[in-house]
Amino acid sequence: MPFEQILLERSGPIAILTLNRPDLRNALTDPDMIGEIEAACRMVQDDPSVSVLILTGAGSAFSAGGNVKDMLSKTGMFAGSPAQLRENYRQGIQRIPLALHRLDVPTIAAVNGPAIGAGCDLACMCDIRIASEKARFGETFVSVGLIPGDGGAFFLPRVLGFSKACELAFTARVIDAGEALRMGLVSEVTPPEQLMERAGELAREIAQQPGRILRLAKRLFHQAQGKSLEDVLELSAAYQALCHYTEEHDEAVGKLLKK
Question: pTM of the entire structure?
Answer without folding.
Answer: 0.94
